Amino acid sequence: MAIKDFFQKKRKYATIPSEQTKREIPEGIMSKCPKCGTIQYSKELGKHLKVCTSCGFHNRLNAMERIEFTLDDGRIFEYDRDMISEDPLEFPDYVARTAKSMESTGLRDAVVTGEGTLGGFPVVVAVMSFDFLGGTLGSVVGEKITRAIETAIQKQYPLIIFSTSGGARTHESILSLMQMAKTSAALAKFSAGGGFYISVITEPTYGGVSASYAMLGDVIIAEPGARFGFAGPIVIEETIRQKLPEGFQTAEFNMKHGQLDKVVHRKDLRFTLTKLLELHTVRPNKEASANG
């Protein structure tokens, strides 16, 4: 083969139009980090619990991913699975938007509740999902969480709530805001009975959720970089007409100012939750249970 022909052939295989490359890579194969821009294989990112291996950015998890990563064997006995939101105010497009979120997420609303085990300890969990209407707090979310709390009271199980939310659900107006009082009252009853509640705050948690059950835990922990507060920073800056400090409302900032007990990397979350359960609850005696 002539040298000229060799280089021509090499160029043929080395030069690939960028648009063609984009078309040939199936959607979902690669993921780009929103923080540092690093491109990684989605499967590899999943092996690291969706934490960027370059900068440590914690990508959002949906409810089912969170359950898979957290509970023993990723298994949950789900409560109130078929509960769905009505449209009490006949809010424009609410029914259509809810149906679209159901189809895209496979969920019925923005929270999954149920029971499982974590490190061998039976627990009641409520896991919010931001991909369902921004994780907004509506009547179904409030009702499911309240029922989960009541079940934890009845069974005397510890309670863990994973929060992520854009706030109260505008489409339900005052009915949404009522959920703050309802869930808070249920937690007060749970606490009075000696229940142990761990609140886990994830990115982002705002509005009515942060102003109710997210900040009522006996222990409150958050993932690195998770932002939480009542109003968002843009609203606050426009209201007070002042520049906010760098990192305002991040988990690290809130930890420094006494709003958290601990910031926990996702890879350490199962271990941390298990240690908290060991310190505050009693592991079931399997032999005693088997004997009735």
Automatic annotation (TrEMBL):
Cellular location(s): Cytoplasm
Domain of life: Bacteria
The keyword Cytoplasm is assigned to this record: yes
GO cellular component terms listed in the entry, alphabetical order: acetyl-CoA carboxylase complex
Residue ranges annotated for the CoA carboxyltransferase N-terminal domain, each copy included: 29-292
Record note on cofactor: Binds 1 zinc ion per subunit.
Zn finger limits (C4-type): 33-55
Catalytic activity: N(6)-carboxybiotinyl-L-lysyl-[protein] + acetyl-CoA = N(6)-biotinyl-L-lysyl-[protein] + malonyl-CoA
Cross-referenced PROSITE patterns: COA_CT_NTER (PS50980)
UniProt pathway: Lipid metabolism; malonyl-CoA biosynthesis; malonyl-CoA from acetyl-CoA: step 1/1
Residues that bind Zn(2+): C33, C36, C52, C55
Chief location category: cytoplasm
Necessary cofactors: Zn(2+)
SUPFAM superfamilies named in the record: ClpP/crotonase
MF-aspect GO terms: acetyl-CoA carboxylase activity; ATP binding; carboxyl- or carbamoyltransferase activity; zinc ion binding
Record-stated family: Belongs to the AccD/PCCB family.
Quaternary organization: Acetyl-CoA carboxylase is a heterohexamer composed of biotin carboxyl carrier protein (AccB), biotin carboxylase (AccC) and two subunits each of ACCase subunit alpha (AccA) and ACCase subunit beta (AccD).
Protein name in the entry: Acetyl-coenzyme A carboxylase carboxyl transferase subunit beta
UniProt source species: Paenibacillus hemerocallicola
